């Protein structure tokens, strides 16, 4: 090692320490922001739960059969790949490319059911686990023929119905009208019993009030989750930089 090498080594060590101190400071700030963001998320979740309780127990209204709210449609695709192939899951509706990172549908999807914006879709085999979704993401798409697709009848607020279909009471009711099949995971939906499920529905104005509030909170919760994912990603990056 010559004199120049020694000089470079001496000057690089303090620089590395300073950089690590800066990173440590940023990490501390990020930790504080993550804690704060988690509290914000918990608050949104609590407010949504409270509104769901109001939806279930705190409103006056008339009792209506689900079959009067959801109107089944069976519009079919006529050409292959006529529209984007979508999948309904317990966590929501996704394009197959988005959810599976590839196209896994059969090569021939002629005869798939068409789903439009503001439709409701469910999986008869997995409804008991909560696989029922309101489509507010895609203008149009196609889903497996095994799915059931519905439009929402006039006189009902879409956002209210979307929230109602995901309440704990609704999920419990789905279990009651689903019969054990050959698989432990899959159950067979008794469609007639499903459409006869009864829900208490308030006035249209009240539906709109509750639906709008829940929709707004869910949008804010989604944004809050994106922010915390960004913070977590930044933290991982900075931790890697400390050990380079």
CATH architecture of the largest domain: Alpha-Beta Complex
CATH class of the largest domain: Alpha Beta
**N-to-C order of helices and strands:** HEHEEEHEEEEEHHEEHEH
CATH homology-level superfamily of the largest domain: DNA methylase specificity domains
Helix content: 40-55%
Number of alpha- plus pi-helical segments: 7
Provide the structure class. alpha+beta
Whole-number tally of structural domains: 2
CATH topology grouping of the largest domain = Adenine-n6-DNA-methyltransferase TaqI, Chain A, domain 2
Cross-sheet strand order for the largest sheet: 2-9-6-7
Given as residue ranges, the uncertain stretches (5+ residues, pLDDT < 50) are: 9-13
Q: Radius of gyration from the CA trace?
A: 25 Å
Explain what this protein looks like in three dimensions.
GO terms for molecular function: DNA binding. InterPro entries: Restrct_endonuc_typeI_TRD_sf (IPR044946), Type-I_RS_S_subunit (IPR052021). This is Type I restriction modification DNA specificity domain protein. It comes from Bacteroides fragilis str. 1007-1-F #10. With 244 residues, the protein is of the alpha+beta class. The chain is built from seven helices and twelve strands. The strands form five sheets. The chain has a four-stranded antiparallel sheet with strand order 2-9-6-7. 21% of the residues are buried.
């Amino acid at each position: 090692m010559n004199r120049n090498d020694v000089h470079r080594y001496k000057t690089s060590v303090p620089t590395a320490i300073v950089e690590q101190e800066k990173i440590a400071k940023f990490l501390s700030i990020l930790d504080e922001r993550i804690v704060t963001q988690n509290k914000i998320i918990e608050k949104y979740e609590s407010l949504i739960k409270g509104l769901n309780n109001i939806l279930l127990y705190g409103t006056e209204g008339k009792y209506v059969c689900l079959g009067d709210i959801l109107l089944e449609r069976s519009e079919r695709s006529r050409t292959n790949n006529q529209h984007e192939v979508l999948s309904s899951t317990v966590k929501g509706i996704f394009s197959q490319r988005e959810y599976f990172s590839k196209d896994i549908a059969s090569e021939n999807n002629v005869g798939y059911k068409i789903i439009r914006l503001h439709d409701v879709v469910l999986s008869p085999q997995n409804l008991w686990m909560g696989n029922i979704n309101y489509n507010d993401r895609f203008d149009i798409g196609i889903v497996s023929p095994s799915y059931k697709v519905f439009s929402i009848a006039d006189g009902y607020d879409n956002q209210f119905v979307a929230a109602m279909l995901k309440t704990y009471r609704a999920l419990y009711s789905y279990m009651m009208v689903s019969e054990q099949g050959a698989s432990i995971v899959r159950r067979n939906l008794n469609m007639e019993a499903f459409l006869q499920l009864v829900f208490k529905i308030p006035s249209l104005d009240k539906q709109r009030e509750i639906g709008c509030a829940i929709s707004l909170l869910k949008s804010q919760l989604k944004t809050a989750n994106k922010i915390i994912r960004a913070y977590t990603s930044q933290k991982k990056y900075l931790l890697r930089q400390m050990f380079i």
